[in-house]
Amino acid sequence: MEVETNMYNVHTSFSSSTKPHATSSDPCWNVMQSEVSSLSLDDFCFIRKLGSGDIGSVYLVELKGNNKGCLFAAKVMDKEELISRSKEGRAGTEREILEMLDHPFLPTLYTTLDTDKWSLLLTEFCPGGDLHVLRQRLPEKRFDEAAVRFYTSEVVVALEYLHMMGIIYRDLKPENVLVRSDGHIMLTDFDLSLKCDDLVMPQLVHDEGTSPNYIHYNNSNDHNSPSYNSSSPCILPNCIVPLYVSCWYSKHMRRQRRRGRGGTSTERPLRLIAEPIEARSMSFVGTHEYLAPEIVSGEGHGNAVDWWTLGIFMYELLYGVTPFRGLDNEFTLSNIVARAFEFPKEPLVPNMAKDLITQLLVKDPTMRMGAMMGATTIKQHPFFDGVNWALLRCTTPPHIPTNFNSTRDFVSAYDDDYVDYY
User: Are residues 231 and 380 in the same domain?
Assistant: First the structure.
């Protein structure tokens, strides 16, 4: 990689207090926080190219000096090329989104480096590669039901968080689902994402089957709206929805008690929803085989596209192919809009998995599962029976990457079998 090695100063650093999930358990985070004020490109060894994308290339880099062993994925973007191709907006959006994220299934942005020529994003390196590569290595080129349930569950939780933060991902596919060293997933590549953080209205929904009652949260003076005391220890940054519940959940539940016929008090469980249902975009973005019908037709799209791509994602993991692929991109797009998909007779796939995929791949986005109630509805589907959503991080992954003792071991393992990780 030929880049200038001088005048690389850190553009952005993060206080550990703003990234609670990235601190104590990550030695590389602690190292970066101690070094961040004096870092330059000379402090990193570029080991190998991991892959290339539309707006940049990703390299495996290692911090030099006494901190050897701290590996990172460095996304390197040529500023002149971004401007000439009118891609600087996409690069800026990805940077803004990465700065917002703090979730175990999403990337940690350690820092950014900038010069007149280059822009770098330094994020977590995932030695397990991506799910596309992992699937290709399987004997039958597909995952079993348990593995699909595991990976899909973690993707659902990641998308739920993104939507809660007002972000529509728009680029879910196996190539963008990386496997961390512990076997859990990390979504990557946010340059196609839509950031609409002011359009998310948190809601509590009574769980009453198919006819939920909505309790809207807003900032109006309506006396029926839940109150927020500015002196409360709860701090409400935009879209950090669970804090609403922690402040007044118990009091609200007491108000919602209902008397049954026998005079006993019953409580209808409440579920939290935060979907950017008002967000709209006319952009034609995504990977052809994963595009939702509303994107192809150009009628405008919103949050429901992520749940469509979840259906395609599940289908590909289970069958090893995508459902609408044609002879070329034009046929693929035609199939997405006009053709009903079918399930192959082989391999055998559980009916519950087929049912979930069918509800996700509804061409009308307003009728698609997740369009209105988001991950809340999807998580209740029988396919996920037995999933402990609160303890996903404690679930044993179906595949744990090889534990390399050194950077040299890692590079040697893949020299003869080059893998595009990103």
Answer: no
Tell whether 339 and 368 lie within a shared domain.
yes
Give the 3-state secondary structure of 357-395: HHHHCCCCCCCCCCCCCCHHHHHCCHHHCCCCHHHHHHC
Same domain as 216, residue 182:
no
Q: Locate 254 and state its tokens.
A: 């007491």
SS (H, E, C) 229-259: CCCCCCCCCCCCCHHHHHHHHHHHHHHCCEE
The arithmetic mean of pLDDT across residues 156-184, rounded, is 95
- With a CB cutoff of 8 Å and minimum separation 6, the contacts of 196 are 166, 167, 168, 276, 279
DSSP assignment of 22-43 equals GSTT-HHHHHHHHHGGG--GGG
171 is catalytic: yes
For the entire predicted model, the pTM comes to: 0.79
Domain residue limits at 25: 9-125
The answer to whether the peptide bond before residue 347 is cis (omega within 30 degrees of 0) is yes
| pLDDT tens per residue, range 177-225 | 999 999 999 999 999 998 886 657 667 776 655 433 333 333 333 333 3
Q: Of these residues, 54, 102, 171, 197, which one is catalytic?
A: 171
- Using CA atoms, how far apart are residues 102 and 20, in angstroms rounded to an integer? 7
Is the Cβ–Cβ distance between 244 and 217 less than 8 Å? Answer: yes
Instruction: Name the more confident of 87 and 312.
Output: 312
Sorting pLDDT into bands at 50, 70 and 90, what band is 23? Answer: low
Query: CATH no. for residue 306?
Result: 1.10.510.10
Select from 116, 102, 148, 134 the least CA-distant residue to 7: 116
